[in-house]
Amino acid sequence: MHDGAAHRIAASHVMHGARTVEHWFTVPLAHGDADGPSIEIFAREYTSLEHSDEAVESLPWLLFLQGGPGGRGNRVTSLGGWMKEAARHFRILMLDQRGTGLSTPLSRQSLPLQGDAAAQAAYLAHFRADSIVADAELIRQELAGAPWSIFGQSYGGFCALSYLSLAPAGLREVLITGGLAPLTGHPDRVYQATFKRVEARNVEYFARYPEDRQRVTRIARHLEQVPEFLPTGERLSVRRFQMLGSFLGGNTRVDALHYLLEDAFTTTPDGPRLTDSFLEQISHQVSRAANPLYALLHESIYAQHEATAWSAWRVLEQYPQFSPEAEHPLLTGEMVYPWYFEEDPALVPLQEVAGQLAAKSDWPALYDLEQLAANTVPAAAAVYAEDIYVDRDLSLETADRVRGLQVWETADFYHDGISDDGEAIFRRLLTMCRSQDGAVE
Protein backbone atom coordinates (compact mmCIF):
# COMPACT_ATOMS: atom_id res chain seq x y z
CA MET A 1 0.00 0.00 0.00
CA HIS A 2 1.08 3.55 -0.65
CA ASP A 3 3.10 5.12 2.16
CA GLY A 4 0.61 7.92 2.81
CA ALA A 5 -1.95 10.34 1.45
CA ALA A 6 -1.00 13.93 0.74
CA HIS A 7 -3.48 16.01 2.71
CA ARG A 8 -4.58 19.61 2.60
CA ILE A 9 -7.36 21.52 4.30
CA ALA A 10 -9.38 23.98 2.23
CA ALA A 11 -12.32 26.05 3.43
CA SER A 12 -14.04 25.82 6.81
CA HIS A 13 -17.46 27.21 7.69
CA VAL A 14 -19.94 27.59 10.53
CA MET A 15 -23.61 27.01 9.76
CA HIS A 16 -26.75 26.36 11.80
CA GLY A 17 -25.15 24.68 14.79
CA ALA A 18 -22.39 22.90 12.89
CA ARG A 19 -18.84 23.60 11.78
CA THR A 20 -17.44 22.09 8.61
CA VAL A 21 -13.91 21.57 7.34
CA GLU A 22 -13.07 20.56 3.77
CA HIS A 23 -10.34 17.95 3.41
CA TRP A 24 -8.52 16.93 0.23
CA PHE A 25 -6.30 13.86 -0.13
CA THR A 26 -4.11 12.61 -2.96
CA VAL A 27 -4.08 8.81 -3.22
CA PRO A 28 -2.90 6.27 -5.80
CA LEU A 29 -5.35 5.22 -8.47
CA ALA A 30 -4.11 1.66 -8.00
CA HIS A 31 -3.15 0.97 -4.42
CA GLY A 32 0.11 -0.91 -4.34
CA ASP A 33 1.39 1.05 -7.34
CA ALA A 34 3.00 4.09 -5.72
CA ASP A 35 4.58 5.15 -9.00
CA GLY A 36 1.33 5.09 -10.95
CA PRO A 37 -1.22 7.86 -11.46
CA SER A 38 -2.98 9.44 -8.50
CA ILE A 39 -6.48 10.77 -7.90
CA GLU A 40 -7.98 13.35 -5.55
CA ILE A 41 -10.36 12.39 -2.74
CA PHE A 42 -12.64 14.92 -1.05
CA ALA A 43 -14.25 14.63 2.38
CA ARG A 44 -16.10 17.13 4.54
CA GLU A 45 -15.82 17.07 8.32
CA TYR A 46 -18.88 17.93 10.42
CA THR A 47 -18.82 18.71 14.13
CA SER A 48 -21.37 20.16 16.51
CA LEU A 49 -20.98 23.66 17.92
CA GLU A 50 -22.00 22.13 21.23
CA HIS A 51 -18.36 21.04 21.42
CA SER A 52 -15.71 23.72 21.87
CA ASP A 53 -12.85 23.90 19.39
CA GLU A 54 -10.61 22.33 22.00
CA ALA A 55 -13.07 19.53 22.75
CA VAL A 56 -13.42 18.70 19.05
CA GLU A 57 -9.75 17.83 18.85
CA SER A 58 -10.24 15.05 21.39
CA LEU A 59 -13.36 13.56 19.76
CA PRO A 60 -12.96 10.23 17.94
CA TRP A 61 -13.63 10.05 14.21
CA LEU A 62 -16.63 8.48 12.49
CA LEU A 63 -16.35 7.78 8.76
CA PHE A 64 -19.67 7.68 6.88
CA LEU A 65 -19.79 5.44 3.81
CA GLN A 66 -22.64 6.46 1.52
CA GLY A 67 -24.91 4.21 -0.50
CA GLY A 68 -24.51 3.74 -4.21
CA PRO A 69 -22.30 2.94 -5.97
CA GLY A 70 -21.98 6.40 -7.39
CA GLY A 71 -23.49 8.30 -4.47
CA ARG A 72 -21.55 11.25 -3.11
CA GLY A 73 -21.42 12.11 0.57
CA ASN A 74 -24.44 13.96 1.96
CA ARG A 75 -24.42 17.75 1.76
CA VAL A 76 -26.25 19.11 4.81
CA THR A 77 -26.66 22.60 6.25
CA SER A 78 -27.50 21.51 9.78
CA LEU A 79 -27.08 18.42 11.92
CA GLY A 80 -30.27 16.39 11.96
CA GLY A 81 -31.25 12.74 12.06
CA TRP A 82 -28.41 10.28 12.55
CA MET A 83 -25.83 13.06 12.16
CA LYS A 84 -27.27 14.93 15.14
CA GLU A 85 -26.88 11.83 17.30
CA ALA A 86 -23.45 10.95 15.90
CA ALA A 87 -22.14 14.49 16.45
CA ARG A 88 -22.66 14.02 20.19
CA HIS A 89 -19.86 11.45 20.15
CA PHE A 90 -17.77 11.97 17.02
CA ARG A 91 -16.14 14.12 14.42
CA ILE A 92 -18.04 12.98 11.33
CA LEU A 93 -16.11 12.56 8.10
CA MET A 94 -18.48 12.60 5.13
CA LEU A 95 -16.54 10.93 2.32
CA ASP A 96 -17.05 11.41 -1.39
CA GLN A 97 -16.02 7.92 -2.47
CA ARG A 98 -13.65 7.87 -5.43
CA GLY A 99 -15.43 8.74 -8.65
CA THR A 100 -18.26 10.61 -6.89
CA GLY A 101 -18.92 14.19 -5.83
CA LEU A 102 -15.62 16.06 -5.86
CA SER A 103 -13.43 12.93 -5.69
CA THR A 104 -12.10 12.72 -9.26
CA PRO A 105 -15.68 12.39 -10.52
CA LEU A 106 -16.50 10.05 -13.37
CA SER A 107 -18.92 10.92 -16.16
CA ARG A 108 -19.40 10.75 -19.91
CA GLN A 109 -17.31 13.93 -20.08
CA SER A 110 -14.35 12.75 -18.00
CA LEU A 111 -14.04 9.05 -18.86
CA PRO A 112 -12.84 9.60 -22.47
CA LEU A 113 -9.68 11.14 -20.95
CA GLN A 114 -8.64 7.55 -20.15
CA GLY A 115 -8.65 6.44 -23.79
CA ASP A 116 -10.81 3.91 -25.61
CA ALA A 117 -13.50 1.73 -24.05
CA ALA A 118 -11.00 -0.93 -22.97
CA ALA A 119 -8.86 1.66 -21.21
CA GLN A 120 -11.94 3.16 -19.57
CA ALA A 121 -13.03 -0.27 -18.31
CA ALA A 122 -9.57 -0.91 -16.87
CA TYR A 123 -9.71 2.47 -15.14
CA LEU A 124 -13.17 1.81 -13.68
CA ALA A 125 -11.99 -1.47 -12.20
CA HIS A 126 -10.22 0.66 -9.57
CA PHE A 127 -13.47 2.17 -8.26
CA ARG A 128 -14.97 -0.68 -6.25
CA ALA A 129 -15.14 -1.27 -2.50
CA ASP A 130 -11.60 -2.63 -2.15
CA SER A 131 -10.14 0.63 -3.50
CA ILE A 132 -12.53 2.73 -1.40
CA VAL A 133 -11.34 0.90 1.72
CA ALA A 134 -7.71 1.45 0.79
CA ASP A 135 -8.43 5.18 0.35
CA ALA A 136 -10.12 5.27 3.74
CA GLU A 137 -7.15 3.63 5.43
CA LEU A 138 -4.74 6.21 4.05
CA ILE A 139 -7.09 8.97 5.18
CA ARG A 140 -7.45 7.42 8.64
CA GLN A 141 -3.71 7.24 9.06
CA GLU A 142 -3.44 10.90 8.12
CA LEU A 143 -6.30 12.19 10.28
CA ALA A 144 -6.80 9.83 13.18
CA GLY A 145 -3.91 7.45 13.54
CA ALA A 146 -5.89 5.33 15.97
CA PRO A 147 -8.68 2.99 14.80
CA TRP A 148 -11.87 4.83 13.91
CA SER A 149 -15.56 4.01 13.76
CA ILE A 150 -17.40 3.59 10.46
CA PHE A 151 -21.07 3.77 9.52
CA GLY A 152 -22.15 2.24 6.22
CA GLN A 153 -25.58 2.76 4.63
CA SER A 154 -26.62 0.37 1.83
CA TYR A 155 -23.60 0.06 -0.50
CA GLY A 156 -21.65 1.75 2.27
CA GLY A 157 -22.36 -1.39 4.30
CA PHE A 158 -20.86 -3.48 1.50
CA CYS A 159 -17.75 -1.31 1.81
CA ALA A 160 -17.79 -1.80 5.58
CA LEU A 161 -17.70 -5.58 5.10
CA SER A 162 -14.72 -5.16 2.78
CA TYR A 163 -13.11 -2.96 5.44
CA LEU A 164 -13.62 -5.70 8.05
CA SER A 165 -12.03 -8.13 5.58
CA LEU A 166 -9.07 -6.10 4.34
CA ALA A 167 -8.08 -3.70 7.14
CA PRO A 168 -9.78 -4.62 10.42
CA ALA A 169 -6.92 -3.17 12.48
CA GLY A 170 -8.10 0.28 11.39
CA LEU A 171 -11.54 -0.17 12.92
CA ARG A 172 -12.88 0.50 16.39
CA GLU A 173 -16.49 -0.43 15.60
CA VAL A 174 -18.75 -0.87 12.58
CA LEU A 175 -22.39 0.18 12.14
CA ILE A 176 -24.34 -0.95 9.06
CA THR A 177 -27.87 -0.13 7.89
CA GLY A 178 -29.50 -1.97 4.98
CA GLY A 179 -26.12 -3.09 3.69
CA LEU A 180 -25.11 -6.69 4.41
CA ALA A 181 -23.88 -7.85 1.03
CA PRO A 182 -23.84 -11.50 -0.05
CA LEU A 183 -20.29 -12.71 0.46
CA THR A 184 -20.30 -15.45 -2.17
CA GLY A 185 -22.22 -16.48 -5.26
CA HIS A 186 -23.13 -14.96 -8.61
CA PRO A 187 -25.13 -11.73 -8.83
CA ASP A 188 -27.98 -13.77 -10.34
CA ARG A 189 -29.00 -14.92 -6.86
CA VAL A 190 -29.26 -11.28 -5.75
CA TYR A 191 -31.75 -10.42 -8.48
CA GLN A 192 -33.68 -13.65 -8.11
CA ALA A 193 -34.32 -12.60 -4.53
CA THR A 194 -34.90 -8.89 -5.05
CA PHE A 195 -37.29 -9.24 -8.00
CA LYS A 196 -39.54 -11.28 -5.70
CA ARG A 197 -39.41 -8.55 -3.06
CA VAL A 198 -40.08 -5.82 -5.62
CA GLU A 199 -43.11 -7.77 -6.84
CA ALA A 200 -44.42 -8.07 -3.28
CA ARG A 201 -43.86 -4.36 -2.73
CA ASN A 202 -45.86 -3.60 -5.90
CA VAL A 203 -48.73 -5.65 -4.50
CA GLU A 204 -48.52 -3.81 -1.21
CA TYR A 205 -48.40 -0.43 -2.95
CA PHE A 206 -51.40 -1.08 -5.18
CA ALA A 207 -53.37 -2.35 -2.16
CA ARG A 208 -52.59 0.95 -0.46
CA TYR A 209 -53.45 3.04 -3.53
CA PRO A 210 -55.74 0.84 -5.67
CA GLU A 211 -56.49 3.69 -8.08
CA ASP A 212 -52.80 3.75 -9.03
CA ARG A 213 -52.99 0.26 -10.53
CA GLN A 214 -55.18 1.65 -13.29
CA ARG A 215 -53.02 4.79 -13.57
CA VAL A 216 -49.80 2.83 -14.10
CA THR A 217 -51.43 0.61 -16.72
CA ARG A 218 -52.96 3.62 -18.45
CA ILE A 219 -49.60 5.42 -18.62
CA ALA A 220 -47.90 2.30 -19.99
CA ARG A 221 -50.50 1.83 -22.74
CA HIS A 222 -50.41 5.55 -23.54
CA LEU A 223 -46.61 5.51 -23.93
CA GLU A 224 -46.88 2.60 -26.38
CA GLN A 225 -49.25 4.56 -28.62
CA VAL A 226 -48.37 8.24 -28.18
CA PRO A 227 -44.81 9.62 -28.34
CA GLU A 228 -44.03 11.54 -25.17
CA PHE A 229 -40.66 13.23 -24.75
CA LEU A 230 -38.67 14.07 -21.66
CA PRO A 231 -37.20 17.57 -21.24
CA THR A 232 -33.83 16.16 -22.32
CA GLY A 233 -35.30 15.35 -25.74
CA GLU A 234 -35.58 11.58 -25.80
CA ARG A 235 -38.81 9.62 -26.06
CA LEU A 236 -40.04 8.12 -22.79
CA SER A 237 -40.41 4.36 -23.09
CA VAL A 238 -42.62 2.12 -20.96
CA ARG A 239 -39.64 0.31 -19.49
CA ARG A 240 -38.04 3.57 -18.49
CA PHE A 241 -41.30 4.71 -16.90
CA GLN A 242 -41.26 1.47 -14.89
CA MET A 243 -38.06 2.69 -13.21
CA LEU A 244 -40.34 4.69 -10.92
CA GLY A 245 -40.39 1.51 -8.86
CA SER A 246 -37.35 2.97 -7.12
CA PHE A 247 -39.89 4.88 -5.00
CA LEU A 248 -41.05 1.57 -3.54
CA GLY A 249 -37.83 1.16 -1.59
CA GLY A 250 -38.75 3.87 0.88
CA ASN A 251 -41.18 4.06 3.77
CA THR A 252 -42.55 7.48 2.86
CA ARG A 253 -41.46 7.67 -0.77
CA VAL A 254 -44.39 5.46 -1.75
CA ASP A 255 -46.66 8.37 -0.94
CA ALA A 256 -44.56 10.64 -3.13
CA LEU A 257 -45.05 8.14 -5.97
CA HIS A 258 -48.81 8.38 -5.51
CA TYR A 259 -48.72 12.16 -5.72
CA LEU A 260 -46.55 11.97 -8.83
CA LEU A 261 -48.89 9.57 -10.62
CA GLU A 262 -52.02 11.57 -9.88
CA ASP A 263 -50.44 14.46 -11.79
CA ALA A 264 -49.80 12.44 -14.96
CA PHE A 265 -52.48 13.37 -17.50
CA THR A 266 -54.00 16.51 -18.96
CA THR A 267 -56.59 17.04 -21.70
CA THR A 268 -55.47 18.70 -24.95
CA PRO A 269 -57.12 19.31 -28.36
CA ASP A 270 -55.29 16.16 -29.50
CA GLY A 271 -56.56 14.05 -26.61
CA PRO A 272 -54.98 12.96 -23.33
CA ARG A 273 -51.28 13.76 -22.96
CA LEU A 274 -48.77 13.52 -20.13
CA THR A 275 -48.34 16.82 -18.35
CA ASP A 276 -45.18 18.87 -18.54
CA SER A 277 -45.04 18.70 -14.76
CA PHE A 278 -45.11 14.90 -14.78
CA LEU A 279 -42.49 14.62 -17.50
CA GLU A 280 -40.23 17.10 -15.72
CA GLN A 281 -40.49 15.21 -12.44
CA ILE A 282 -40.04 11.78 -14.00
CA SER A 283 -36.98 12.98 -15.88
CA HIS A 284 -35.12 13.45 -12.62
CA GLN A 285 -36.08 9.96 -11.49
CA VAL A 286 -35.12 7.98 -14.60
CA SER A 287 -31.86 9.71 -15.54
CA ARG A 288 -28.41 8.70 -14.32
CA ALA A 289 -26.86 12.02 -15.31
CA ALA A 290 -26.16 12.83 -11.67
CA ASN A 291 -24.52 9.47 -10.88
CA PRO A 292 -23.46 7.53 -14.02
CA LEU A 293 -21.10 5.45 -11.89
CA TYR A 294 -24.17 3.74 -10.44
CA ALA A 295 -25.22 2.38 -13.81
CA LEU A 296 -21.68 1.44 -14.81
CA LEU A 297 -20.67 -0.37 -11.62
CA HIS A 298 -23.93 -1.47 -10.03
CA GLU A 299 -23.68 -5.14 -10.93
CA SER A 300 -19.92 -5.26 -10.37
CA ILE A 301 -20.39 -4.60 -6.64
CA TYR A 302 -21.56 -8.22 -6.45
CA ALA A 303 -18.94 -9.61 -8.84
CA GLN A 304 -16.10 -11.84 -7.66
CA HIS A 305 -14.09 -14.01 -10.07
CA GLU A 306 -16.80 -14.12 -12.80
CA ALA A 307 -18.67 -11.92 -15.23
CA THR A 308 -22.05 -10.44 -14.36
CA ALA A 309 -23.16 -10.71 -18.01
CA TRP A 310 -26.05 -8.27 -17.43
CA SER A 311 -27.38 -10.38 -14.59
CA ALA A 312 -30.58 -8.44 -13.83
CA TRP A 313 -31.57 -8.36 -17.50
CA ARG A 314 -31.22 -12.14 -17.79
CA VAL A 315 -33.01 -12.87 -14.51
CA LEU A 316 -35.85 -10.54 -15.51
CA GLU A 317 -36.86 -13.05 -18.18
CA GLN A 318 -38.06 -15.29 -15.34
CA TYR A 319 -40.53 -12.60 -14.24
CA PRO A 320 -42.88 -11.76 -17.15
CA GLN A 321 -45.05 -9.70 -14.79
CA PHE A 322 -42.41 -6.97 -15.10
CA SER A 323 -42.54 -6.97 -18.90
CA PRO A 324 -43.69 -3.68 -20.46
CA GLU A 325 -46.11 -5.78 -22.53
CA ALA A 326 -47.74 -7.39 -19.47
CA GLU A 327 -51.45 -6.69 -19.10
CA HIS A 328 -50.74 -4.78 -15.89
CA PRO A 329 -46.96 -4.21 -15.82
CA LEU A 330 -45.23 -3.92 -12.47
CA LEU A 331 -42.78 -1.20 -11.55
CA THR A 332 -39.14 -2.27 -11.31
CA GLY A 333 -36.53 -1.52 -8.65
CA GLU A 334 -32.92 -0.40 -8.75
CA MET A 335 -31.74 -2.97 -11.28
CA VAL A 336 -29.60 -1.88 -14.25
CA TYR A 337 -30.23 -3.12 -17.77
CA PRO A 338 -28.20 -2.78 -21.00
CA TRP A 339 -30.90 -0.64 -22.61
CA TYR A 340 -30.21 2.10 -20.04
CA PHE A 341 -27.20 2.87 -22.20
CA GLU A 342 -29.40 3.23 -25.28
CA GLU A 343 -32.12 5.48 -23.82
CA ASP A 344 -30.49 7.75 -21.23
CA PRO A 345 -28.53 10.53 -22.98
CA ALA A 346 -26.10 10.68 -20.06
CA LEU A 347 -25.27 6.99 -20.55
CA VAL A 348 -25.34 6.58 -24.34
CA PRO A 349 -21.64 7.53 -24.74
CA LEU A 350 -20.79 4.89 -22.10
CA GLN A 351 -22.51 1.97 -23.80
CA GLU A 352 -19.35 0.24 -25.00
CA VAL A 353 -17.49 0.49 -21.72
CA ALA A 354 -20.60 -0.76 -19.88
CA GLY A 355 -20.61 -3.82 -22.09
CA GLN A 356 -16.95 -4.47 -21.37
CA LEU A 357 -17.55 -4.26 -17.63
CA ALA A 358 -20.47 -6.69 -17.91
CA ALA A 359 -18.17 -9.14 -19.71
CA LYS A 360 -15.24 -8.73 -17.31
CA SER A 361 -14.57 -12.10 -15.63
CA ASP A 362 -11.47 -11.45 -13.52
CA TRP A 363 -12.96 -9.32 -10.75
CA PRO A 364 -10.95 -9.89 -7.55
CA ALA A 365 -12.53 -10.99 -4.28
CA LEU A 366 -14.04 -8.25 -2.14
CA TYR A 367 -14.24 -10.22 1.10
CA ASP A 368 -11.91 -12.41 3.15
CA LEU A 369 -14.17 -15.14 4.52
CA GLU A 370 -11.58 -16.42 7.00
CA GLN A 371 -10.98 -12.94 8.38
CA LEU A 372 -14.72 -12.31 8.74
CA ALA A 373 -15.17 -15.65 10.50
CA ALA A 374 -12.46 -14.62 12.97
CA ASN A 375 -13.64 -11.00 13.32
CA THR A 376 -13.02 -9.24 16.65
CA VAL A 377 -14.24 -5.73 15.74
CA PRO A 378 -17.55 -4.85 17.44
CA ALA A 379 -20.19 -4.65 14.73
CA ALA A 380 -23.96 -4.15 14.53
CA ALA A 381 -26.32 -4.09 11.57
CA ALA A 382 -29.92 -3.11 10.94
CA VAL A 383 -31.61 -5.55 8.57
CA TYR A 384 -34.93 -4.41 7.12
CA ALA A 385 -37.32 -7.32 6.71
CA GLU A 386 -38.98 -6.05 3.52
CA ASP A 387 -35.97 -4.36 1.91
CA ILE A 388 -36.33 -4.51 -1.89
CA TYR A 389 -32.72 -3.51 -2.51
CA VAL A 390 -30.71 -5.63 -0.07
CA ASP A 391 -32.53 -8.90 0.52
CA ARG A 392 -33.28 -9.86 4.10
CA ASP A 393 -32.49 -13.58 3.69
CA LEU A 394 -29.17 -12.92 1.98
CA SER A 395 -28.35 -10.35 4.66
CA LEU A 396 -28.93 -12.84 7.48
CA GLU A 397 -26.84 -15.41 5.61
CA THR A 398 -23.98 -12.92 5.61
CA ALA A 399 -24.49 -12.00 9.26
CA ASP A 400 -24.04 -15.65 10.23
CA ARG A 401 -20.59 -15.61 8.61
CA VAL A 402 -19.24 -12.55 10.42
CA ARG A 403 -18.12 -13.43 13.91
CA GLY A 404 -19.66 -11.24 16.59
CA LEU A 405 -21.90 -9.25 14.23
CA GLN A 406 -25.09 -8.35 16.07
CA VAL A 407 -28.24 -7.99 13.97
CA TRP A 408 -31.31 -5.91 14.66
CA GLU A 409 -34.00 -7.08 12.27
CA THR A 410 -37.00 -4.80 11.93
CA ALA A 411 -40.08 -4.43 9.74
CA ASP A 412 -40.64 -0.85 10.91
CA PHE A 413 -38.39 0.63 8.22
CA TYR A 414 -37.53 0.11 4.59
CA HIS A 415 -34.22 0.69 2.87
CA ASP A 416 -34.19 4.38 3.71
CA GLY A 417 -34.68 3.83 7.43
CA ILE A 418 -32.06 6.38 8.45
CA SER A 419 -34.08 9.02 6.64
CA ASP A 420 -37.13 8.12 8.74
CA ASP A 421 -35.60 7.89 12.21
CA GLY A 422 -31.85 7.99 11.80
CA GLU A 423 -31.27 9.38 15.25
CA ALA A 424 -32.83 6.38 17.01
CA ILE A 425 -31.36 3.84 14.59
CA PHE A 426 -27.83 5.19 14.99
CA ARG A 427 -28.17 5.31 18.77
CA ARG A 428 -29.38 1.73 18.88
CA LEU A 429 -26.60 0.36 16.70
CA LEU A 430 -23.91 2.27 18.57
CA THR A 431 -25.22 0.93 21.87
CA MET A 432 -25.15 -2.61 20.43
CA CYS A 433 -21.52 -2.13 19.41
CA ARG A 434 -20.48 -0.60 22.70
CA SER A 435 -22.14 -3.41 24.65
CA GLN A 436 -19.78 -5.79 22.88
CA ASP A 437 -16.60 -4.08 23.98
CA GLY A 438 -17.78 -3.11 27.44
CA ALA A 439 -17.98 0.62 26.74
CA VAL A 440 -20.37 2.61 28.89
CA GLU A 441 -22.50 5.40 27.40
What is the strand content?
A: 15-25%
Write the CATH fold name of the largest domain: Rossmann fold
Structural class: alpha/beta
| CATH homologous superfamily grouping of the largest domain | Alpha/Beta hydrolase fold, catalytic domain
Multimer state: single chain
How many whole angstroms does the radius of gyration measure? 22 Å
Properties at a glance:
two-stranded antiparallel sheet, 17 helices, alpha/beta, Rossmann fold, 2 domains, 9-stranded mixed beta sheet, 38% helix, 441 residues
Summarize the structure.
With 441 residues, this protein is α/β, with parallel strands linked by helices.
Describe this entry's structure for a reader.
With 441 residues, the protein is an alpha/beta fold. It has 2 domains: 6-182 and 367-437, Rossmann fold, CATH 3.40.50.1820; 187-359, no CATH class. It is 38% helix and 17% strand. The protein is built from 17 helices and 11 strands. The protein has helices at residues 53-58, 81-86, 117-124, 129-143, 155-166, 187-208, 211-225, 238-241, 253-261, 276-286, 292-297, 311-316, 340-343, 351-359, 369-373, 392-399, 417-437; strands spanning 6-15, 18-28, 38-48, 61-65, 91-95, 148-153, 171-177, 265-268, 271-274, 379-384, 405-410. The strands form 2 sheets. It has a 9-stranded mixed beta sheet with strand order 1-2-3-5-4-6-7-10-11, sandwiched between helices. Strands 8-9 form a two-stranded antiparallel ribbon. Helix 4 (129-143) crosses helix 5.
